[in-house]
Amino acid sequence: MGMSARCLLYALLLCLAAPGSQPAAAQTQKGTLVFAVESLAAQTLDPILEQRPGNAVYQAAMYDSLVGFDIDKGGIGPGVAERWELDEDGQAWTFYLRPGQKFHNGDKLTAEDVKFSLQRQMAPNSVAASAATFRRTIKSIDVVDELTVRINTVSPQIGLPASLSRAVAPEGAVMPKTYIEKVGEDEFRRKPVGSGPWRFGKNVPGDRIEFVAVDYPHWRGTPHFKELQVLMVPEESTRMAMTRTGEAAIASIGPDTMRSAVRGGLEVLSVPGTMQALYQFWGLYRPEVKDNPITKPRVRQALSLAIDRQAIIDQVMNGLASKPYPFATFGYTEYFSADRWRKWGDTAYRYDPVEAKKILAEEGYPNGFELNFANTALPGTQFMVDVGTAVVDMWTKIGIRVNSTNYEWGSFAPLVQGDQAKLIGAASMYRTVGRPDVVWRYNSFAPDSDQRLLGDKTTCDETCKDFQAVVKSLLAERDPAKRTALTDRMVELIANTWMAVPIIEGMGYYAINRELVGQFAAIPGRHELGDVFERIPRPDEKPWPK
């Protein structure tokens, strides 16, 4: 069977197997589902102005993506497109849209909207993480007919469907072409229109976003509740109190709160393998930091050896985390030698402060050095700040004089854009989320990406060039064994730079008021609940087991 046939068969099987792939029967909708979260990120409802966290926390409620996800296993599955296939020459993907879809204003969703949306995501004013990659790799987009769109690429892009899925990234969000062209971008951002199971209601900056359920069957699942409110409540203790009193039905919490939540009579939902908390270095290729100690890979390795990851798991994460695989990889990562890298990580990520001090002395820093560190947490993982604080304390013990600054995510996110002036030569906390397709996250190292951790278009050393060559080959490779070898090589290149270093592999944690919400399951490996709200029943429909 050829590659095209296999891709088509796989997509068809996913479509047939995916729960919610057929319109749900009409049901009673009542009540308001209130979700309390610590941050609303940029709090914009325009998909081209929001990266992963906001898109997956609240934009997912009102927008559908070209490719969806497998809600049982994680990873990609049918979305706006019910199936897709790769051409025999590997240089075009054809997506077949499910019929009968519409936007909230009544406009029919067609291939023209898909083309328009992808072009918006690639536009100069887009902050989409993959915008630059798409501009480089997508040659053209053809509307074959009302329900068929063909994406032509300059070279084989095996991972393109995953890149257009909310299971991986937000770039696949489908927006209404006719509406946006009629009212303009400013009005669209004030009164956004999507095609998801929830339509926009109100956006109160710094406070909340409100949605209203669609009153017709939706392929993702027709909401059980009539309204949805996503509240910004920075203090975890307040979110917990709101959940206990019934002001909120669900609240994001950290691992240290889970026991008190259970004692308080709340249900606790944990989602394993959802993320890595890590730290990464910025702009080390820039000439102005050539004398900075952290430009040396062995110094960066010493910083990792100074971290007692098990202590962080036990003391900060309340035992509800595990030691990580290399950057952005998980046990379920596709085309990846997980057993080999598990063994590697057990050694490489060991706690060895004696060896750390020895390396520092050998590199010329027996008395340590100063290091600027930005401590922050992406939405949904506020415990990252506590992890960062613990890491700073451990670095201090080997002589590193850390200048640590705490940032709320909304303040930190703009710093990674543009020239990154405030981050050059510094380290920061960061996060990578659990996805089976690993290549998309490694884009952070590419010279044409927003983060460009290895170099930029004018400065790209041998490691940077080797990385680009491996990724180019990986994106075009069809043979599974060769694809695995290339993934392993990509992981090895970045792991040996010690440029982005995992600290722990964490989970998603939620406190739930059983009297307000019925039993539901999260999507494996997916921290955010944006694609789950429509599937959450009321307590009278499906109570939690005693």
Cα gyration radius (Å): 23 Å
Enumerate the spans where pLDDT stays under 50 for 5 or more consecutive residues: 1-26
The overall average pLDDT, rounded, is 90
Domain module count:
2
CATH class categorisation of the largest domain: Alpha Beta
The separation of the N and C termini measures 50 Å
Quick one: how many beta strands?
16
Q: How would you sum up the global shape?
A: globular
Query: What is the assigned CATH homologous superfamily of the largest domain?
Result: Periplasmic binding protein-like II
Largest sheet: 10 strands, mixed
Strand order of the largest sheet: 8-9-10-1-11-16-12-15-13-14
CATH architecture tag of the largest domain: 3-Layer(aba) Sandwich
CATH topology of the largest domain: D-Maltodextrin-Binding Protein, domain 2
Question: Helix/strand-derived class?
Answer: alpha+beta
Structural overview:
The chain has 546 residues and is an alpha+beta fold. It is built from 18 helices and 16 strands. The strands form 3 sheets. It has a 10-stranded mixed sheet, sandwiched between helices. The N terminus is likely disordered.
